[in-house]
């Protein structure tokens, strides 16, 4: 696919997906959503050697400043629900991606931008990152599951404070609250994300995929996370990588995983 609003590059098995709308502070419009959907459901899964994905924003000012407010003109109830549903679907695809996805938050991460970062498995904040859910300023709630994932990450009380005041918080506060996994110098976000992905790339790929599935099951009201883990454990015990991993431990050597 020829992307219009994303830049996609690969290095050492790691994909970097950059939202490329710098003049609009990387606001998430329909094209960005269609292209993210394509990357995470078609291009990414087709790359068998993929270790993981970093998502970031073009330029040094924004990760993504939210849904594209210019596309809100003429929105009625039905269209708004369709827009929200589409965002939920794309972010679920990212959350359930079987390889780790890390948001490298290089600036404003507001509204839909914060929701995108929260759908990723981890978040690395540059020193100038600013997080917030300012939808009440526009007379809206979050539309891409911010009201749900913010609670999962920072708890109900703090989530309500951020959602109801529309306050923005900086990188250190986001880290203190558990919204950001790490804070790094401005401009070092992608490098830190890649460092984490490289470490994960030395582990058994099927175990990584199943671990993501188990953790997601905790938050899925239709799933039993405990049973998901029991099944994952049984599934993995039948894999070549389990035999390789346990033999390597006994033989005091480094495991060579094949993802089988
Ligand atoms: N949608 C569309 N365009 C946006 C945008 C957005 N979310 N955020 C910024 N832009 C555009 C601005 O319109 C401006 O474009 P022009 O030069 O053509 O006028 C350009 O990006 C630069 O923005 P500013 O001049 O405003 O830059 P600033 O440094 O003065 O302010 C900011 C930066 C505080 C992030 C400010 O741009 C801002 O408040 N943006 C909106 C943030 C927001 O409300 N996000 C939530 C959107 S709603 C949502 O996301 C709902 C949902 O969950 C589905």
How would you sum up this structure, described in words?
With 260 residues, the chain is α/β, with parallel strands linked by helices. It folds into 2 domains: 6-200, 2-enoyl-CoA Hydratase, Chain A, domain 1 (Alpha-Beta Complex); 205-251. Helices cover 46% and strands 16% of the residues. The chain is built from 10 helices and 10 strands. It has a 6-stranded mixed β-sheet, with helices on both faces. The chain has a 4-stranded mixed β-sheet with strand order 4-6-8-9. Strand 2 (14-19), helix 1 and strand 3 form a beta-alpha-beta unit. Helix 4 packs across helix 5. It is globular and about 60 Å long. The model has no long low-confidence stretch (mean pLDDT 97).
Can you tell me the CATH architecture of the largest domain?
A: Alpha-Beta Complex
The Rg value, from CA coordinates, equals: 19 Å
**What structural class do the secondary elements suggest?**
alpha/beta
**Largest sheet properties:** 6 strands, mixed
Give the strand tally.
10
Contiguous low-pLDDT stretches (5 residues minimum) are: none
Q: Within the CATH hierarchy, at the fold level, what is the topology of the largest domain?
A: 2-enoyl-CoA Hydratase, Chain A, domain 1
Shape: globular
